Each structure stands twice: as C-alpha cells, then as structure tokens.
What does this fold into?
Amino acid sequence: MTAPSDRKHPVDETLPPLRMFTSGLQHVAAMYAGVVAPPMIVGPAVGLTPKETAFLMGASLFTAGIATLLQTLGFWRIGARLPFVNGVSFAGVTPMVAIGKDRGHDGIAVIFGAIIVASLLGFVLAPYFCKLVRFFPPVVTGTVITLIGVSLLPVAFNWSQGGNATAHDYGSTTNITMAAVTLVIVLALRKLLRGFLQQIAILLGLVAGTLIAIPVGITDFGALKEADALGFPTPFHFGAPQFEIAAIVSMSIVMLVCMTESTADMLALGKIVGRPADERTIEGGLRADTLGSAVSPLFNGFMCSAFAQNIGLVAMTKVRSRFVVAAGGAILILLGLVPVAASVIALVPLPVLGGAGVVLFGSVAASGIQTLAGAALEKGENALIVAAAVGVGLIPIAAPDFYHAFPKDLLVVLDSGISTGCVVAIVLNLAFNHLGRKPEAEAGTAPGGHDPVKAVEVAAH
It folds into this structure.
C-alpha cells in the first residue's frame, strides 16, 4: 500500500522536544571527543598556552555547530538536508601542525588563512566535484581514511608519554601506566555497555581516567581556574589571517580529501535513511562543508567535514530526522559559548587522552580498512595502488627526516603523509583504472572496487 502523499519523509519529521534534545545530545556525545581532539593537538604544537588551547576547543565546538546547522537545515542550494553531522576534520591535523609548528599566533593565523582560501576554492568546485564520484572508489577513499588514522597514532603515543619531550617525567612509567589503564577502561566499557552508554565509552573512559589521575598527581587545574563561565569566540582572536602559498596548497589538498570523504559519507547516509543522495544533494552538502569551513576561521575554528561515527549512530538508532541532528548542532553552539565547559575537557591529562587516543585514532584507521574490504583488492592493480599510496603516506611517520634536503615550502605538503598518500592514490587509480579502459568497462561497479555506496555503508557501521 502506498503511503499518503502528504506524509513527511522520516528525514523531515520533527520529534517531541524532549526526545529531540536527548537524541541530539547523543549525537554530540558520539562526536564530542573527535571535535576537541584536533585543537588539543594543534594548540600545543604551535605553542599556545593551555588557556589558549581551551579557547580553541570552545571555538571548534561553536563552529562545528554552525557547520552542522548548515548541513541539516540549509538554505538556497546549500546543505544536504540530511541528518549529517559536521565537525573539525582529522584530515587537516597533520598538515596544520606542519604549517604552524612552534610559530605561536602567527602559525594559527597562517593556518586560518590557508583554510579560508582552500574552503572558498572548494565552494567554487562543489558543482563540478559532485560529478567526479566515479574517480573516488573505495580503493582511494579507504586508503586516505586509513592514512588519516595511522598518521595520528604517533600523536596518541606522544600524549601517552606526557606530551612534552623536554619534561622530566616524559615517558615515565606513571604516564604510560595511566595511558594503559585508560585504554583498558575504554575497551571494557565498549564491551560491557550497550546503547547510548556504549556510544560514549570513550568519553566515560576519559572521565574515569582523569579521576584516577587526580590522586596520582598528573591533573592540571590551571586552565579551569582561569576560564570564564560565559564567553564568545572573538573573531580573529589570534590575529588577522595570513596567506602563504605552500600552506594554501597543503590545505587545498586536505579540502579535496574532506570533499571526498563527505561525498562517500553522503552516499552511505542517503541509502541508510531511504533518501538516496543524488548529484544535487551532494552538491548542496559539499557547499555546506566548504562554506562552514570558510566561516570557521572567522571564529577561530578549523576545517569541517562529515563525522562517519554519527552515520553509524543513525543506522543503529533508526532515528532519521535531520532536525534531531540540528538540535545537536544547537547544543554544540551553546557549549562553545561556555568556555568553562571546554576547560573541563582540558583537565584531562595527556597520558589519559593518549590511552583513549589509541582507540579514537585507531578507529579511524579501522574505518579505512573496512572501506578497503570492499575495494576488490584482488582485481587488477588495486592492491598495488594501496601499497604505493600507503607506503608513500607513511614516509613522514617512519622516516621524519626523509625530505630534509627539499625546499622548506615543499615540506608543508611532503611532511603530511595524508596529502602525499592521497595524491598517489588518486593518480594511480586514474592510471590503472581509468586511462585506456574500454567503454563497456565503465559500466556497473565503480572502477577500483565494488559499489561505493555499499563499501562506505560498511565503514559507517
């Protein structure tokens, strides 16, 4: 029997206020750690104080809320209008650290300038990029997502040791034991809990680890004491954006990576909610991504993209309303306006964060491996594409001084394994799976793998 024509699609339905709030809060809980982790990496790396890093975290929450509202509610031809959560992208962390390392406020200003230019470029390219889906099969997207997770794991290991290599207790048994304890707690909670509590196992593990760390004596309450109860992320708090060509090139590559991830996530989410993402939906989603990223530096935030873990949450809970996710976006904005809330996160000792980071960053890599599982590596040269791209992408991790003789401007790109690995994967996929292919070979599944929607749907779960 056909449903009445005036019945709303589940994506467009609104829920009772209490259920709307609690369901939105659940989305925030599922992605909260992912939003605050990038500024916690970038802040200390560029030389910001704990208070400034806490400010950066609050700004990231605020701008993630804006980007999420752009995606879910939208206006004009901007927004996918799906239950699509946006937040700070992990893809930009390594390049941003390379750009701003030890440069303080100037480093942040250069990062913001590069993000603005890269985002505006992405906004212009969105109508054309959405037509290039076939050039980004699972063999490419899976490789890139895997590299993102693997590239961030050394950060978790550094945190586990204490974060400051010059400190007297760096790598001490106390720090590493706290990291190990937190890791075990997170894994145990993930195994034993169910439903909503299981989704926030990482957050619960961070809370438990921090409480244990207080009597151990490695918890710093300085940032909390100095934080204001209420505040607004002052526009350009760290100074006017600065524009450097090498940084812009690096962040433009990151933007292409983010657009690729978002496209794959929209294809998966559209299938899950029963509203397939066509070219217009993808175009609107990419415009929201890029516009949100362009506006983000104004309020001291970073580049935004889709959060795949929330797609899994939609699939698990069966709550498909985009207004639920919009409520989550509003909660993120409110949290960003309460600096003391961001400072509470700063209480988490780095060894504790490192233990949870092993799971957090490892999960990103695992998501990429799941995508590669649908990439038909046994066919053609797909395994070779992955091998070469991952190999090149791991150079900055395995041999940090490998490019030491290259011009400094090139190092901003070369020192990012994500950027270099992505370029290699795209070029080799074009060379092996597109150039010289027979016309009939273009039909059916995407080159380089199986149906990309099915492959990405696996990653979303």
